[in-house]
Amino acid sequence: MAPMGDNVVVSNVNLEKLLSMKGGQGEASYANNSQAQALHARSMLHLLEEALDSVHLSSPEVPFVVVDLGCSCGSNTIYIVDVIIKHMVKRYESSGYEPPEFSAFFSDLPSNDFNTLFQLLPPLANNGGSSMEECLASNGHRSYFAAGVPGSFYRRLFPARSIDVFHSAFSLHWLSQMPESVLDRRSTAYNKGRVFIHGASDSSANAYKKQFQTDLAKFLRARSIEMKRGGSMFLVCLGRTSVDPTDQGGAGLLFGTHFQDAWDDLVQEVPSQH
Ligand SMILES: C[S@@+](CC[C@H](N)C(=O)[O-])C[C@H]1O[C@@H](n2cnc3c(N)ncnc32)[C@H](O)[C@@H]1O
């Protein structure tokens, strides 16, 4: 939390408790508004498969465990997990091994609409001990055991050395919190009440940069404990073309100024309701 006092314009609420994509399967839901992410993820499949080619093939006696961090509540996560598992099955088979059983953990903040995600999951194919080949041949079915894991990826989520593959796409740009100094009127990093850094001062940009570095270090530390030896991690992060962090380009205008306008409208509406 930000220090309390006259100089702080907004208390630093815990983003983890608030943040979520729009749940359900309605017109405005994440499930129906994530085609751009789907398109970009598909364009990177060759890189994902390259990363998977370096994963150590563990004993078929032990389940192979895949995790999607920041899975949200649409079908992109289901698609990617399916790609990962199918690729690993091929690798086991081409190496002359029987593929193991697969587990997939779909992880996001507790406020994520896991109910919608679970409803989108295809039924489990492994019905009464059928073989992996039969599972994969049964279209419209999944060949892995699924579970949801609520929690922030900036902390530990899994037991030590239990995960073979971590995947995370379009999620790591969400910081764990607003940097306190951008909310503090006394600080040179004070961002004048704005909710974005497009066109902000170098100090404000640096405060966000520091927060990102702290968060990313926590993320990597937690994963380094949780990953099995020989495991792999594939991260897809949003970027920008300019070296200047205060120039967020088109996305800065879309996610910055438009959000700011919407936020200002909401703030103005509150007093008029009383
Ligand atoms: C834009 S969605 C991406 C969903 C999915 N990976 C895709 O490609 O469609 C970003 C997700 O990251 C999640 N997220 C943000 N901060 C998080 C955190 N600290 N821990 C876990 N998930 C987080 C959000 O709740 C959201 O569901």
From TrEMBL:
Magnesium in keyword set: yes
An example molecular function term from Gene Ontology annotations: methyltransferase activity
Entry keyword set: Magnesium, Metal-binding, Methyltransferase, Transferase
Keyword field contains Magnesium: yes
SUPFAM superfamilies tied to this protein: S-adenosyl-L-methionine-dependent methyltransferases
Any one biological process term the GO annotation gives: methylation
Coiled-coil blocks: none
Superkingdom classification of source: Eukaryota
Protein name: Uncharacterized protein
